[in-house]
Amino acid sequence: MKIVVAKTAGFCMGVRRAVDMVLDAANTSDEPVFTFGPLIHNPQVLEMLREKGIHQIDEIPSKGHGVVLIRAHGVPPEDEKALEDAGFTVINATCPRVVRVQSIIHRYASKGYATIIIGDERHPEVVGLLGYAKGKGHTVSSMDSLISLPVFDNAVVVAQTTQDTDFYARVKHWCADHAPHYKIFDTICGSTEKRQAEIRQLAQENDAVVVVGGKQSGNTKRLAQIASQTGKPAIHIEDVSQMDYKMLRSARSVVITAGASTPNWIIAQACQQIESSLRKPHGFKKGLYLLRDFLMKTNIMAAAGAGSLTYACSVFQGISNHVHHALIAMLYVLSMHILNNLFTVKSDKYNHPRRADFYNKNKIYLWFLAAISGATGLYLSYTSGVLSFGILLIMSLLGLSYNLKIIPLVGKNGRTGRIQDISGSKTILITIAWGIVTTLLPAVENKCQLWPALVMFIFATGLVFSRTAFFDILAIQGDRITGKETLPILWGEKKSFSIIKAVLVFEICLILLIFFTDLLAKGVFLLAFIPFVMLLLIRFFEKDSHISGTRREFIIEFLFFASGCLAAVI
Ligand code: SF4
Fold it and tell me: How many Å apart are CA 296 and CA 536, to the nearest integer?
């Protein structure tokens, strides 16, 4: 069974922007935050907003208090004014592409033109657009309703941004024949056009289509309609619990797509479950998948990567007891990562639903594993020396306090907070902690020279930074929901990718330059292979965002593991 995930599936720019704006408001405002109407037509996102205390108002009260966000569909101008007059602080998250249509209507309506809007008259975007037509707006949802309109002296024709492109083409054709003086604007959003064109093509090339998204979402329903018009079975589900696998029984290839209001975590969840139900691996392959998932969920893979990196950095510095240091790093990372996952099950629900489920079911064993690995790491460091033990103890205490409200921080709202409440702390602290444990601890304990130790520290922190920032990009939606401000949230996805790539290029250059000095063992040039491959993979992942998160994380973790293997061959 072949499974194809549409490249255009998921949040469009306007929806993502509105969701980000309301979450940012909720994370930073002391006042209550509301949305005017449902933010998007997706029940899981609405549920998530309710959990965050963001409620919905459907009527404008005469008096109000707090922040109100106008959703991507926009509203009539009088509604925005009424909200302000009632005393609300208004955040206008109308999509810039909808704002463009509003401006066109406003401009021509001011000159006396009639407005013909091709769309569903009950759709909030159309209701908002009509508000700009100065009472001369008409909605058209079929060819019959277009033909039944009088021919106006002057009129503009615009389409709801999520309108069917084929239907709008027919409207334009009719206008060219019967009302050539009408001014027609191409207002269907590029993202809608691409999404519809892609599903039309994919539905023809494959045997069945699964559309994931709210049943009330117009653009999602339209994707299901377009797919079924090709004659292939098309299933529209809000979540995987609604899947009817019988309909896919004879299909050899299935396309999964999603509407503009479907968040990544729902798409990822649907893909994983549909894939595991349809493509049941057997025998050896099944064993490999189970092993991979277990190593990732328990963080053993991350710990093995930290151990390997320590081993490699120690070998190239000429440190003799490298296995001992690798074990300490491995146990420390294992303990801290498990603890972190135990404390963040709530955000994992959005980013890694299966891992969150695993942590909920195996809490006791995982607490035990975290405690025993942390204690063993500390014991091993004690056998290395007092200094090593002291550093690791401080780092362990800091790691423990990261998610607990025991640090008297003054947060933005004057409340006591946690270290994780500091913007960007997650990405930076993981990087520093790994850097210390993989390079500085062994170097300090073995009284290594400053410069080789420093080079290895810069190399290790650069790699760990790239890994952590990339994982943070994958988790950006869930982190935003739970109010975590990772560096990719502060910088934005695009800038974060550019920074990660720049760091990796720097890493490659650093290792190649060091090769021409006597600071480290000559085989060190092999290490340049790790950031080079990581750079290629991250460029590839950046373009193809629908490879499962677990698979991408596993590949990156494996590279860390590979660093130890490279060191072992010299
Ligand atoms: S579909 Fe297009 S116009 Fe509508 S919200 Fe998304 S990006 Fe904006």
Answer: 22
